[in-house]
Design brief:
By secondary structure, this protein is of the alpha+beta class. It has 6 helices and 10 strands, in the order E-E-H-H-H-E-E-E-H-H-H-E-E-E-E-E. The chain has a domain of 155 residues. The protein is globular, with a radius of gyration of 20 Å.
Length: 286
Amino acid sequence: MYHNIGTWLGITRNGRIAVLTNVRESATTAADSSRSRGAIVNSFLTTDPTRTIQEWLKQIADQDGSDNFSAVGGFSLLCGTIRNRDIGNGKTLAILSNRTNTTVLATDVDGSKTTHVNHEKHQERKGDDLYWLKSQNKLTVPLTLGLSNSLHHDPWPKVHVGLGDLESLIKMDTSSEDEPKLIEALFKILSKDNMPAVAKGSSIEAYYAALTQSVFIPKFVSSPPDASQHKPAKIYGTTQQSIILVDINGHVTYVERTLYDEKGKSMSPSTRDIKVNFQIEGWEST
């Protein structure tokens, strides 16, 4: 079903949205996979927009004979459909992970109430539990939700930092703020660098441990160059940032900021952003 292409984030004109983060694996072999995790996002975004998340999962199982998530590395997927007519009726965003069987439903789109859920499992799997609907737990999440490269129920410190800043921004009176100022305030949160100092010459594991602390990851060399294999040094760090805003009228603003060019040089503020605006189709007037 999946091709080795994909993306980590997307939103469609019918309001379907998906965001995927890789889960940090304890072993390199666990992170290796024959299929692209990004293709899962493509699959959800391009399936029939009338299908629920549960129906999408069943569609994958019916077509492939399995959910196929065992063929990819660890991930957490936030997905759902943003519709104003669904606000308050329990149709919300969800988190799916192939490293946990817990179901989490996020607060309704307008933040007015938090939905409780107790889904029955819809299909039995052999081996490890990959279907998120299998959990019988009743969980709630607050208005703000954070995901990183850990399991969603065991967030890294950086998630708490980012959520604190986001909650403070939400509580501010933004009625007089225009959209560009709000976008820059959100980029400021994404750019918060509180990376602990790592001694020069430390192991890559020491750097990776520090990554759990900082929302923004400054560039560092994760692998030295290998002249014998003609391989350049591998650089790790935050290279792109994205913001999606959906207003009460269903108007979407998508901004993607690229921080460095292909040579690793900082992009100019005049050329680093790509901005797309569109209206969610079928959004009912309020």
